[in-house]
Amino acid sequence: MTTQTQTASTARAGILSAVFAAALGLGIITLAGHVQASALHDAAHDVRHATGFPCH
């Protein structure tokens, strides 16, 4: 009985994680698709500088 419950719980957690990842990915793609190119570039540029990666 415990094994069946644990397996169902693990499967549900995996499905929930996949749904969350898909929703997050679609949200990012949608946001990036509607933002102006200069705003997207500036945001990426600022993140690169904040994390210490050179970009010039």
Q: What is the typical, i.e. mean, pLDDT? A: 82
Radius of gyration: 19 Å
CA(first)-CA(last) distance: 60 Å
Please count the beta strands (DSSP E, at least 2 residues each): 0
Q: Strand share of the residues? A: under 5%
Instruction: Work out the helix count.
Output: 2
Instruction: Please tell me the total number of domains.
Output: 1
Oligomer: single chain
Structural classification: mainly alpha
Shape: elongated
Task: Work out the helicity level.
Answer: over 70%
Helix and strand pattern:
HH
Summarize the biggest pleated sheet.
Answer: none
Give unreliable regions as ranges.
none
InterPro entries: CbtB_put
Organism: Ruegeria intermedia
Protein name: Cobalt transporter subunit CbtB
Describe the overall structure.
The protein is mainly α and 56 residues long. 86% of the residues lie in helices and 0% in strands. The protein is built from 2 helices and no strands. Pfam families: CbtB. It comes from Ruegeria intermedia.
Keywords:
single chain; elongated; CbtB_put; Cobalt transporter subunit CbtB
